[in-house]
Each structure stands twice: as structure tokens, then as C-alpha cells.
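Listing 4. Sequential folding, example run.
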Amino acid sequence: MIIQEVAPRDGLQIEPTWVETDDKVALIDSLSNIGFTRIEAGSFVSPKAIPALRDGEEVFLRITRKPGVIYVGLVPNARGAERALEAFADELNLVMSASETHNRANMRMSCDASLAGFGGIVELTRHTRVLLNGTVATAFGCPFEGHIDEDRVVSIIDAYLALGMTGITLADTTGMANPRQVSRIVKRALGRVGPEALTLHFHNTRGLGLANVLAAYEAGARRFDASLGGLGGCPFAPGASGNICTEDLANMCEEMGIPHGIDLDGLIALSRGLPALLGHDVPGQVAKAGRNRDLHPAPEYAVAA
């Protein structure tokens, strides 16, 4: 399994407390050093829209690039793509919602306008080595429209591939997915794109995040977004609590014998530092409870003589 860490972007975007650029850089460098091969390191949206990530260029220019790690930047439009290229992002993540209403709330434009804009970004990057990932937000349900037709999701995947996207992400933006639904849609997506290029992005809003990961994995998916401590959520979707927690996901993989390549102890240590950085507790469970192997001494009255 490949775990892409998204806390530096999706995790921090709704934090009310400003996280200093030095701290963002240190976090990304620490993530690079514990085994991640893909890190969504920041965003190139308007500073007015997402002020918590207004230092995107500086972050990308100051991180210590580790060979073999892909540093991803989210871009909303051609200007954002230009900024990301100037900051040497390895991959641009372009986002459009399957829901017309959510796309207008999130991107301030229709889905047709988003796709047209993506065509311009493809042209902008045509003679570069940058990778392009197309994310289908609200792929499993929309807080405004409710059910999303699965054919609609597949048609967007086809449109992305026709544009020349090198990767596809299916995002459960507000945690509305269920395992059976996930299994169906992942199987259909894998009929169009290989597992090395398909990412699943789940939120744990309704407690089904890791169950959905397992359903997607058993359907053939191998790449998943996750956020340190379970941070994050969409600022333009009501009730969108955090992403699935990276250390909880890695711990599940370890207990089940699924290789993931991350230093889990190092990951837990990083997560335990988040409350001091952010000024509040975080949703992740393993950092609080410890790993299964972290045993405790038995009370004296329970020790056999």
C-alpha cells in the first residue's frame, strides 16, 4: 500500500491557528524522513480563500527534497499552476466535484468551466516533467445534492484521462461513502486506470473511514490519502470533519500484514506533537492508545504467586 500524506495541505487548511512556515517545513521534512514517497505539501489557491496556506511558495522552496519523494501541490486554476511550477512542485492536483452544487461552492464555477480550465493547465505543463492528478471530489455523495450517480463519477474519470491526467483521485469529501459503494466504484475505476495511478481519499466523518479503505484495498486499490492525526476537512462542505488518520491507517496495515513502508513509531511520535503545534487535541486514536505491542504491567493483585 502507498500512503500519501496530506496533512500539510488538507490537514492544515481549516486550522484556525496560523502554523508558522518554519513549522510547516519542519513537518514536511520529518514526513520525508520516515518513509513517505508522496506528500501533498501545500496549496496554490488564493490566499484570501485559504489564508492558512498563503505561504505555499515559500514552503515548497524551503523544504529539503528527498530523492524518490513526490511533493504535490493543489492548484485551482492556471495562475495557481504557474505558481506551483515556479515553486517546483512535482505533481499538480486539480480538483473538480462530481456535484455541480459543491463545485460552485468550492471552486466558484460550474463543472464545465472547471474542465475547460484544466485543459489550459494541461497545455501549460505539456513540455514539463510535472505530473497531473485529477481529483473527483464528492465522488461518493454530496452534502448539498445527496446521492451522486456512479456513471457521473466514471464519466469524469474518462474526461480527466482524455485531458492527459497521469493520476486519478476519488474523494469522499464529507465522509458519506460506505464499503459496498466503495467496492463497486473502485472496481469500475480500475477498469479505466491502473492501481498505481488511482488514489482513494476518505474522510472519517461518520466513522467508516478505515472500513472504506479496506473495501477499496480488497477491490484492488493500492494508494490512499491520509492525514497525520486525522486532521482536515473541506471548508466549503458542511459537517466535513477530518481525513482518515495516517497513523491509524498504518497501524491497521501493520496488524494485518499489509506492507506500507512508513516508520510507524516515527509517525506516532510526530502525531503526538500536533496538539502542542495546533493548540488542540487531534482525532487520531493510535497516538493516544499506543500500539498493540505496547503492553502494560499487570496490577500486583493479578500476578500469580
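-- end of first protein; second protein begins --
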Amino acid sequence: MDKINSVIVGPLANRPTLAARVYEIADIWPPFTAHDLVGSALLGRVVHEFPEYCVVATDGDRVVARGLSVPFNAELDGREQTPDQGWDRVLAWAFRDKAVGNPTTVASALEITIDQDYLGHGLSYRMLHAMREAVARQGHRVLLAPVRPNAKHLHPRVSMANYVRRTREDGLPDDPWLRVHVRAGGTIEKVAPASMTFSGSLDQWRSWTGLPFDHDGEVEVPGALVPVNCHTAHNVAVYVEPNVWVRHAI
């Protein structure tokens, strides 16, 4: 049987015993992405507190993909559906709303991660479709996504706004992951210029990247979508990652 045909995709809420295993996936996230402070504090709790908004894929006993999303209230004062602080902001809002009992008005994807051995077989489309269905079952008619374009790291000096404008001859986005979303019915809305923020001492960045971080200015880091800003006098480097807001009507 073809590998992808043996994969079962469905809501995590229907398979709760898999919640503890969704991070067994052999992923390709750059090492520094584990050090976003908001994500470090909250992301691991999503599968336990919002399982009805999450999806999982298995091949036999093996977990091969996860898809995480969360609901939040975009109608409170000072909020909007597609905030400039993107991923960090909606994750924080989701847990705040749950803690105080705010009603939710919209859902946002956080990630779809595919095991390295299962990339390139169309599983991302199945995961996105399953996530849209999961969100719809909770009564929402919109799924937002602060998308991390998966080929942007090859062009770190290009602004995200200009990168998003790049299209193929057929009019679809040049970026593969943005193309998946658009083919699935998503609409690109805007750039989230400060979607995630990673800061650390120069020694921390050296350990995360293997780079020297020994001069001031912009440092290109493998896997980073834009350069990291290094300040040697202050012993700090900061990476502010832009993402792209995509809206799915469901």
C-alpha cells in the first residue's frame, strides 16, 4: 500500500490517548524556534486544553502529523482578528479567554507539522482540510492562519511583503506552503510583521545556531525568515519573525 494511503487523519478529541505523543514527530523546525517565550509557556498545553481544535495523523502505531489551532475572542476592545503580533498574540489570547471564560468568535491555526518521512505526499492538504472541519464543528465559520512560508528562509533579505507578491505563471503563490493554503480556498490578507519574537544572549544564540555572533548588525541564520539582529555591546540578539495572515471561510 502507498505510504500516504495508509495514513488516518482525524480530530485529536476523538483519539485523546495520542495527545501525549504528538511531539514524537521527526520535524524540520530550526532549533531556535523552540525558544519563543510565548510558545515555550503555552504551546505544549494546546493539545490538552483545546483537543477539539487539533487534528492528528497516524500510520499504524506511528504519529506522522499534528495540526494545532485555538479559539479566541476577536471582538474585545484592543483586539482584531489578524493582529500584527500574529502567532504569539493569538496563542496568548486563547489561553486568556479560556481562563476568564470569554466567549470565542474565531479560530486560528498554530501549526501543521508533518513527519520528515511523509513530506511531499499531499498530507498537508489532508491535515488542513481536517483542521477546517474540526473548527467548523465548534461553530466557527472562519479559520485564520498566521502562516510561516516554508521557502522564505531561502530569501532572508527579501521583505515579507515583497515575498508574498511572488507568484507563478498560474497566479498561485510561489511559496509552497502559501500555495497549499490558497489552493485549499484560503485568502492572503496581510503580513503579521512581529508574529513571533526570539531573544537571547549571544552565547544562547551560539548554542542554538552554531554561529559566532561576534559582530553587530544583521546575521543570517539557517531557517530564519529574516536576519537576526545582533548587538555585541549589549550581549543580546533578537529575531522578530514575520508571518502571513491567511483567512479560510468554512
